[in-house]
């Protein structure tokens, strides 16, 4: 039976058609008993579930925010980048969908296998180049005649930009990003077989008055080890990772070596500024704390203990009498 839910109006119309004889109930039963055939294209194999695609979209929405911050700082102008779509398609279809001449950066992402492709629309690439060189961000598409200087500037700009991918992917994998190739003709770029399933994340990019697309092509072989971490079950787990025993021991050692100021406070008093300015050797300052009353012992700026003063080995000392639970803040 179909999983589609009918509205009340549709149910009423169906009952009315059966009662008037326009539809035969026996024919409906016969249709339901027939086998349903679903067309499956083996050239367009779907290796990722909708759940996986949603997780990838969420990860790269964070990446889009990081890119927005990065390019806005580098280009010193308004930049807005947002995810428009996340699709799984054959690699051949991705190559056909992008311009014949465009900016292609190929990255390795060790320790994962395979390579990912960053495709930047020439309009966007040249607007960025113009801003870096001090222009207004105008776009002049002459990608087939890139000079060595232009190639070098673009390579460095996008090589640093893709470093943000490590932070975006940190929740599912610890990766490095290594630029391995720079190309302008997609036909010369063959990273996987034509029928290999790839995930393509498309970003709408606005730089001033210039608009264009940035596409990330991620082959299945790259994402395969991370598929279990793209499920809802993984994302529903605690976001904070449990620290390993080695990490706990390291932190404890660092804390135990931390120096703290411990001060025994003899007492406090209030005097006039004039008396303070005329104070001399031999003058006596009367404190508000009687000799018979214990002294406050402060750790940092908190009163933690009370104790009594004394002498040990001809040195002034204080004996801890009690601990103040909760470590009340000093009134100062």
Give me the CATH architecture of the largest domain, please: 3-Layer(aba) Sandwich
Instruction: Provide the structure class.
Output: alpha+beta
| Helix content bin | 25-40%
- % residues in beta strands: 15-25%
Q: Please give the count of helices.
A: 11
CATH topology call of the largest domain: Chemotaxis protein chec
**Shape assignment:** elongated
Backbone CA Rg: 35 Å
Overall domain count: 3
> Kindly state the mean pLDDT as a whole number?
80
Annotated CATH homologous superfamily of the largest domain: CheC-like
CATH top level of the largest domain is: Alpha Beta
Largest sheet: 6 strands, antiparallel
Summarize the topology.
Blueprint: H1 8-20, H2 25-33, H3 50-75, E1 79-90, H4 91-97, E2 103-108, E3 115-120, H5 122-132, H6 148-161, H7 164-168, E4 178-183, E5 197-207, E6 210-219, H8 220-223, H9 232-235, H10 245-256, E7 262-265, H11 273-277, E8 295-299, E9 302-312, E10 315-323
Antiparallel strand pairs: 1-5, 2-3, 2-4, 3-6, 5-6, 7-8, 8-9, 9-10
Describe what this molecule looks like in 3D.
The protein folds into 3 domains: 9-40, no CATH class; 44-235, 3-Layer(aba) Sandwich (Chemotaxis protein chec); 255-323, Surface presentation of antigens (SPOA) (Roll). It has 11 helices and 10 strands. It is elongated, with a radius of gyration of 35 Å. The protein is of the alpha+beta class and 332 residues long. Helix content is 33%, strand content 24%. Strands 1-5-6-3-2-4 form a 6-stranded antiparallel β-sheet. A 4-stranded antiparallel β-sheet has the order 7-8-9-10, with no helix packed on it. The longest helix has 26 residues, at 50-75. Residues 327-332 have low confidence and may be disordered. It comes from Gottfriedia endophytica. Belongs to the FliM family. Pfam families: FliM, FliMN_C. It is found in: Bacterial flagellum basal body; Cell membrane. It is a peripheral membrane protein.
């Amino acid at each position: 039976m179909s999983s589609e839910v009918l509205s009340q109006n549709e149910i009423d119309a169906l009952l009315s058609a059966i009662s008037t004889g326009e539809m035969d109930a026996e024919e409906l039963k016969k249709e339901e008993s027939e086998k349903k055939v679903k067309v499956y294209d083996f050239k367009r194999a779907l290796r990722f579930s909708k759940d996986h695609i949603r997780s990838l979209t969420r990860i790269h929405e964070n990446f889009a925010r990081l890119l927005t911050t990065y390019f806005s700082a580098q280009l010193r102008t308004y930049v807005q980048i947002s995810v428009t779509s996340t699709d799984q398609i054959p690699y051949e279809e991705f190559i056909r969908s992008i311009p014949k001449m465009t900016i292609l950066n190929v990255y390795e992402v060790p320790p994962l296998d395979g390579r990912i492709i960053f495709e930047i629309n020439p309009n966007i690439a040249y607007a960025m180049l113009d801003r870096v060189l001090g222009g207004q961000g105008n776009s002049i598409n002459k990608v087939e005649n890139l000079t060595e200087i232009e190639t070098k500037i673009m390579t460095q700009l996008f090589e640093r930009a893709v470093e943000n991918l490590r932070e975006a992917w940190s929740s599912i994998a610890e990766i490095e990003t290594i630029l391995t190739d720079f190309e302008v003709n997609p036909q010369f770029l063959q990273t996987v077989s034509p029928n290999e399933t790839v995930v393509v994340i498309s970003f709408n990019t606005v730089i001033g008055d210039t608009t264009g697309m940035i596409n990330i092509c991620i082959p299945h072989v790259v994402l395969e080890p991370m598929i279990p971490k793209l499920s809802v079950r993984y994302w529903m787990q605690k976001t904070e990772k449990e620290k390993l025993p080695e990490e706990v021991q390291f932190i404890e050692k660092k804390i135990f070596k931390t120096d703290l100021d411990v001060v025994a406070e003899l007492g406090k008093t209030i005097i006039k500024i004039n008396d303070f300015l005329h104070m001399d050797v031999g003058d006596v300052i009367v404190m508000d704390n009687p000799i018979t009353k214990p002294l406050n012992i402060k750790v940092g700026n908190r009163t933690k203990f009370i104790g009594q003063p004394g002498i040990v080995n001809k040195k002034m000392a204080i004996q801890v009498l009690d601990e103040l639970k909760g470590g009340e803040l000093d009134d100062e």
